[in-house]
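Methods — Computational structure assignment.
A single polypeptide chain was analysed. Its primary sequence is given first, followed by the predicted tertiary structure written as structure tokens.
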Amino acid sequence: MGKNRVILEIVIGYIIGILWGLYLDKISIVLLYIIMFLIIKLISFTRIYKYIKLILKPVTVILIIISSLISNLILINQNNKYKELFTQIEDVEIVGRVIDNGTNKEYTNIYKIKIEKLNNKLKYKDTHVYLQYKEKLEYGDSVYIQGKFEEPDITKNYKGFNYKEYLKTLKIYGTVKGENIQVIEKKQNNVVMTYFNNTLLKTKDTIKANFDQNIGGILLGILLGDANEIEEEVRQNFSESNISHILAVSGMHISYIIIRIIIYTK
């Protein structure tokens, strides 16, 4: 079996696990495996089974099941962390790292923070929050944050874009309004991460220079997982067209997949 085919099958399973966790989170993904097994058994008595076997080889099915199970379990664990965090925490102390270049809003800047410690606990390590802060921070800064935690808004209108679910795909728990921020160390990311960040900056600049605001915002959301440039009206249009899952399966996941494909195919 070719290396590229194996990667494709793993990616397909990974996406299936994410989508199942997003939209059918109250039903065990084991049900999907049972349905797959029953369908294969039913078609095994038909003439088309020999053609199906050319596509759905046992190894293919196993790879899809394993990768979908892994991504689904990750999402379940993430959901459990969400529930606990939202019911227990308001005032927060965070030690973390700035992992984007910030977005300037009217009276504040918004940064994505990768958590290392939250209220002196390592439980939420490698998850993320948005930080609202007036002063300028830089990519890679290690920071200490005191502030108020706010849960993301859920959909308020019928078929509206569920911003809370979207952020969940990015492992972003919510927003912290910074009250006391201290920069512990400046620009602590390694050379590789700095290279990727510079590449993302160039990509963003190219998209913004060549597309209008609406189209550019959509491209940034799908390709890079940066939804800050997508207008609320555009999000609503995605939802009403029943294609909001394109945004929900975030650009960040797509970026991870692309990076892994590049690594495996070199």
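Note: Residues 191-265 form one domain.
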